[in-house]
Amino acid sequence: MSLEEILQHRRSVRHYDPTKEIDSEWVKECIQMATLAPNSSNMQLWEFYHITDHETLKKLSRACLDQESATTAKQMVVFVTRQDLHRKHARKMMELEVQNVLKNSPNEKHEKRSSRWKLYYGTVMPFLYTRFFGIAGFLRKIFAYVVNVFRPMILEVSENDARVVVHKTCALAAQTFMLAMSEKGYDTCPMEGFDSRRVKRILNLPMGAEINMVVSCGIRMEKGVWGDRMRLPFEEVYRRV
Questions:
Q1: C-beta atoms surrounding 94 within 10 Å
Q2: Which of 32, 61, 82, 184 has CB 3.0 to 4.6 Å from 70, enough for a Cys bridge?
Q3: What are phi and psi of 78, to 5 degrees?
Q4: Ramachandran area for residue 2 (φ above 0: left; ψ -120 to 50: alpha; else beta)
Q5: What pLDDT does residue 217 have?
Q6: Which CATH superfamily groups domain 1-241?
Q7: How far apart are CA 237 and CA 43, in angstroms?
Q8: In angstroms, rounded to a whole number, what is the distance separating the alpha carbons of residues 48 and 78?
Q9: Is there a contact between 121 and 94 (Cβ–Cβ < 8 Å)?
Q10: Percentage of the residues of the chain whose pLDDT score is greater than 70
Q11: Measured CA distances, 17 to 39, 56, 76, 223, 224 (Å)
Q12: Residues 6+ apart with CB under 8 A from 173
């Protein structure tokens, strides 16, 4: 399918065909494609839980409030944010970028460019993502507003702001996954109606993990799509500057 055909095909499906199975390896491939989604500073603070076990699906359906998108799903994918892994991921990115410099930059620029990446991933990223009962974010806010007096500066640096960034990044991966599923002729439904505490318990997630969304998967029945697609008139939402 073309991109437009994929976008037209993707709908939030509320009821899946119980007689039609989907290939778990194809779903896994779509999750792999989701990892290609753009993400903030390439920190990749996400995890993807591919649910195929029947009993686990039943438990998740209950945690998703028994909505039909969940109870009729053949498989599910739970998109999880892992801001608590920011130091580990920052170290990996620092090592990667330093190697990129050594491989792709002139020798005379190695030290300067390597130092820049070491500063970014060794200091800036831990500074932005650290959480400590809101205090770290408050101190970052003060610093940002002082710097902003003299030059442009990102002001969304509170602990809640950092959390929003991580969830936006994970949502981009979820969207990429759903489009990849459409390309294979499979259907999905992103669900934000769920009991996050129960979902975390079912998946045995650590305290620092958060549920971004649960995406159910299957093949739609005719009644699975609730009516024609509605979008606001383009003129109401489009602004050319």
A1: 18
A2: 61
A3: -105, 120
A4: beta
A5: 98
A6: NADH Oxidase (3.40.109.10)
A7: 31
A8: 6
A9: yes
A10: 100
A11: 34, 19, 15, 10, 8
A12: 34, 35, 37, 39, 46, 48, 79
Nearest to 216 by CA among 82, 83, 66: 66
Residue-range domain boundaries for the chain: 1-241
pLDDT of residue 78: 98
Other beta carbons less than 10 A from residue 129's beta carbon: 24
Give CA–CA dist 167/171, Å, rounded.
6
- Spatial neighbors of 21 by CB under 8 A, at least 6 apart, are 74
Please give the mean pLDDT across all residues of the chain.
96
| Angle of CA points 94, 100, 101, to nearest 5° | 90
Q: How far apart are CA 33 and CA 212, in angstroms?
A: 18
